[in-house]
Amino acid sequence: MNVLELDRITKRFGRVTVADELTLSVRQGDAVGVVGPNGAGKTSLFGMISGDLRPDAGEVRFDGHRVTLLDPSVRCRLGIGRTYQVPRPFLGLSVFENTLVAAQQGARTRGRASYALAARVLGETGLADLAGRPAAQLGLLQRKRLELARALATRPKLLLLDEVAGGLTDPEVTELVALITAAREREGLAVLWIEHVVRALTATVDRLICLAGGRIIGDGGPLEVLASPAVKEVFLGTADALTEAEDRDA
Amino acid sequence: MRYIAGFIVILLAGVPYMLGPAVEQPLVTLFSLVAMASWWNLLAGFTGLTSFGQQAYLGVGAYGLYVLALAGIDPFVAIPLAAVLAGVVALPVSFPVLRLSGGHFAVATWVLAEIFRLSVTLSPAIGGNTGVSLPGISGYLPLLRQAVVYWWALAIAAGSVLAVWLLARGRYGLAARAVGDDPVTAASSGIRVARIRRWAYCLAAAGTGAVGALLFTHTLYVQPGSIFGVQYSVLMMFMVLIGGLGTIEGPVAGALIFFALQQTLAAHGPWYLVLLGAVAVAVTLFAPRGLWGHLGRPLFPIAHLQER
């Protein structure tokens, strides 16, 4: 069964098209990677799924509901959890409170149940020891973990990960990937994952989508997509141009 | 410590018997400041809504009390009704102003208070520009009236601090603090941002309306030019920032500091205002979390701690 369906969504900012009649579906429990050059429309795509952005045309369906025009808070309560590329924790709240508020509002738990859910998620994301710390004091890796903890505490059916591995060292990426894989296996949730660190993706996802100019130019097994000529052109085309430019400069 | 606070309130309740009107009068001012600041803090400190127009609800509270008293209701009984009226008036108003945030919200609330002031000025039925005196109060002997005003002031101040504390430490308060920190993340964490802000706005209006009604029973006279004055919002901001934004003790501490400065220095005219400004600048520079924010452990904690 499809948990998410995008039906010909279109979004333009002035003359820039970030989604061009884009159609996509994600099945329950799927892990789908999203790659593409800068400006391909990856984060905008997430915005239209989570509700931070409204498409100009087309329809977004989630878990049997038409959510195209719904507020982000309603979509979160329906089961869409998201992280932001640049972590945006609630800086005035403690790590525990960041997770607790998501458990209370997103997962709609109360009292002891909400405390237990928040504590459990902090344990799973390796933040248990930092629970009492103000979120403002966290470093980048910890903020990325907290971003993930906050999203997981809303008990999502679909998790949108926006470059959770960006800016981290290799061992940190490995740790984070393990954590996400564990969460997937435990909850059976679907994951849509934007990442520039392709290594992190290929290790985790069973399907890869390549976006360029607001269109899907590759969709299938990760290795197959990365090997396709259209995808190669988008990525390696620019790489070739770079090499040529460097050659000229030399 | 909380029990000490309760004890102090009980002690203060005895002031009319022990010390009489000379002490009552200034304390009514202090208590109204505490209440005003606490409600302003619910908006700005917890929910991230910096209002410059809370004087609108001081006015609605005062003029609401006038209308209720004219209708024959005892003014002291009508104080809570005037508060409810202010909260109800705030509801439709909240829809346009809460579409804005940050500086736009601040200016919009101010403009709104000016509209309220002009509407009263242009309504001869409620006294127009000259103002009105409180009807239905002549049945009280002055000594008793002053004591009742004092008790109401104490009840409103203590009730406001307690109400804001209970709100801030609960489920609602946690969501409100998240909204104040980052409304975008808040929404994508499942928080109904608009609803949280609307509640804060209407409750703060009701609390401020109670203070407006109280001030009317204290001064017995109200004029649109003074009750709708923007200096009230400046005052609320001063007290909360000095004391500690987003803490329960901050507005109380700020009110005490302002009150102390006012009582000792008011005689020196303009220098008093210069000093207020200097204090505000010094605190902002050297103690940005406010004086209470730097004093350590809160007496009225709002944090949610993990159960071990």
TrEMBL record, chain A:
What superkingdom does the record give? Bacteria
Write out the GO cellular component annotations. plasma membrane
Instruction: Reply yes or no: does the keyword Hydrolase apply.
Output: no
**A matching Pfam family:** ABC_tran
Kindly state which keywords UniProt assigns to this record, in alphabetical order: ATP-binding, Nucleotide-binding, Transport
Q: Where are the transmembrane segments?
A: none
Start and end residues of each ABC transporter domain = 4-238
PROSITE patterns per the UniProt record, alphabetical: ABC_TRANSPORTER_2
What is the protein's given name? ABC transporter ATP-binding protein
Q: What is the scientific name of the source organism? A: Acrocarpospora macrocephala
Its organism's taxonomic lineage begins at: Bacteria, Bacillati, Actinomycetota, Actinomycetes, Streptosporangiales
